[in-house]
Structures are given as structure tokens and as C-alpha cells.
Amino acid sequence: MAYLFCTPDEQQQMLERIGVDSLQTLIDEIPKELQLNRPLDLPVALTELELEQHLRELASNNIGASARACFMGGGAYDHYIPSVVDEVTSRGEFYTAYTPYQAEASQGTLQAFFEFQSMIAELTGLDVANSSLYEGGSGVAEATLMAMRCTDRVGRVVCLGSVNPEYVATLKTYLTNKTTKLEVVPTSTGTCDVAALEKLADDQTACIIVQQPNFFGCLEDVEAIGKLARQSGALLVVSFDPLSLGILKRPGDLGADIAVAEGQSLGTPLQFGGPYLGLLACRQQYVRKMPGRLIGQTVDRNGKRCFFLNLQAREQHIRRAGAMSNICTNQGLMALRATVYLSLLGPQGLKEVANLSCRKAHYAADRLKVIDGCELSFAQPFFKEFVLKYRYGADVAIRRAAAANIDIGPALNHFPGLDWLSQEDRDQSVLVAVTESRTKDEIDRLVSALAAS
Length: 453
Fold this sequence. Notes:
The protein is α/β, with parallel strands linked by helices. The protein is built from 14 helices and 14 strands.
């Protein structure tokens, strides 16, 4: 049901039609004892998130119903999505829109992408952003190839071992038929060993890739890593969590030359693994080497603001040898969802989501690490995600949580790319992510499930 307000002029027209001079005159006709002249005895108003949580709790009382709570991490997260995101993006003109081949004829689509680019550029602290890639893993790979073009170096790419192993696997696939050597720097402490990294950064290195927060949830010293990259003439590629930027420094402020991200947390549901959204932003001097599309703003012959497809150096529009990428589409609908989501949150909302996620994650970690058989795998600062080491095994932890209608994970033994960790660490360690959507009761329920003998 839609609720439409009346303008003052419309109200006056209605009053004149019924022969009343003011709304107060109508109210005065109600007997005094029936007028609302006192505060209502109502509970404190709930936010949309709180209201939905309350309704889910009520629904869980139905026979056969279960109130599951998602604490799963590893690159896709259960953040709250305001209902207006679905309402706007499900409109026919958005939901069915496809990349136009005569782009300038679709000004609405171009404007939506332009607003998306502007928000991502501001979010990252970099000069320019493209109008999206497929997802986070291909974003890392595309940024790496871009760095190789920008530096004209193809000898070596250095990637921290704390980068999502699925992203590293994607990058390896991209480099399969190239002579470039991919160096993955192991870590046993949860963050980068800068001394070990320094030995690999030389005049053959195209870029250093770091994730912030990293795959284990820990915070890297990105500025120190960026300094090493600049000393060797390499570019710094930062894979970031968009919502963490509500409280953490932006990639551009940390010295990133190219920033990429998985944009799923910006208003896209988990939806069984996709489709998701890849973000990419860079400094102005590298824009001609950027993959994907770039929407620009200009004026038409009548001086009116309009938009155009400014850059599209991809295989579908340019000869193969001159193409920046074989990415032949973008995630337009997911980018639109991100645009609506970010416009709703604004800077203050982004900060609140980040703060809630961080504080709830630390509350969960503090409760869990005192349980017999539990400890945090890494003693490093973290944002909203951490690695929990469970003496009885990660698979046991996942099963016990599932029995309490809670999903955690994945276990580290799920990722072959982490084989530089000991077998025991991989078998006993599981990721736990806590977003603003999780409640204290859900966290306490998880603690109780893992504390059970």
C-alpha cells in the first residue's frame, strides 16, 4: 500500500469543497474527551532493521519455522538491505535494462552509472572509478593486469598470502599463459611480514597486492606496504571492504594506486553466490589503462546536462590488441543497487554500519575466546571478521553452530591456497563474521552452541 501526502494547496481545496475554513475547525468538532491531548502509551519506535528482526523472531514461533543467523564470512556477508533498495531497483526500467549499444540514447542508464562512479570515487579517495566489474576476484586480476600495463613490467607480481585465496586463484588463472611470476608471501601471524615483502619488491615488480581488512579479518599496515611499492616503482593494489571505510582510512589516503573490491555488501543479497559486483577505482594518470567502461558528463547543443560513454576500451568495441580487458559487460543492476544503498546511508549511515559491525564482532570474539577449546587464531586488530580456532575441529564447530540454527564458516581447510598454514591450523580454524544485522541474542546463542561439551 502506498501512502501519499497532500500539499497545503490540496488540503485547502478539500476544505473549501466541504465548507470548512481550517483543519483545526474539524478537530474542534470532536468531543474533548475523545481528542488525543496526551502522549500515547506506546513503546519506543523501532528502526527498519529492528522491526524486521522482531518480525523474524515472531515468525520463528510458527511450527516448522527456524530463525537462522548468518555469521559466515570469506568475502560475502549478511548485511542489512533497506527495503527501498529492492523497491527502486525492481522497477521495470531498471530491472530489465541492458547495456545499450547506442549508449547516449539511454540517458537514465548512463546517469545511474555516472552517480555510481562518483560515489565509488569518493568512497575510495581516488580520482576515477569505472562503471563496475564482475566481482571481487576478477577485480583483483583486472587491477593486476592494469598495473602491468601502467608500469610496463611483466616480470613479477607480489601478492600477500592474507589476500582471499579465491582471489589469488582467479589471478593465477589470468596469468596462466603469461610469463609473469606470481609471488605469494606467506604469513603465520595474520598480517604481512614487511621484511619478507621487502626482499621481493624490485625493479621487475609490477604491483604489490594487499587486502584491507585481509581474508582473516586482520588489519594490514597498508601505508608501510605502499612505501615499499613506491620505492621499487611498483603500483599498490588494495582490495578493500567498502563498508569498512565508515571507520577505516580510504585506500587512496593509504597510498593505493588502484583500489578494487567485492561490492556485494552494498545492497546485494547473498543469493547463493551471485551475481555480485566488482568495484575498481584508480588515480587519474592511469585512467587510459583502466578496464571496463567510464561514463562522462557534458552538455548537449542546448546547454543541458547530459551523459555519454567516455571510455570503453574493451574487446567488444576495439581490436583485440588494443583492448584493456575482455570484460564485455558490467553488473549494471548490482551497481544500481549499490548506488541506491550508498545514497540512503550517506557518510553518517556508513559510519554507523561500520561501527556496529566492528563493535558486535569484538563482543563476539571476547565471548568466544574464553570458552574452553576456543581461541582467536591471530592476535591482530580486526574489523568485523576473525578466525576462530576450535580444538575439536572446524567442521565440529560448524555442525554445532548449525544445530543451533546458526551458520559460521567457511573452515580454512576449504581453501587449498592456504597450504602454507599448518594442517592443524587449517583443520581447526573457521571464519566468523559479525555484521550490524546480528543481535546480542544471536551472538550469545553461538557462544552457547560452541561451549556445549
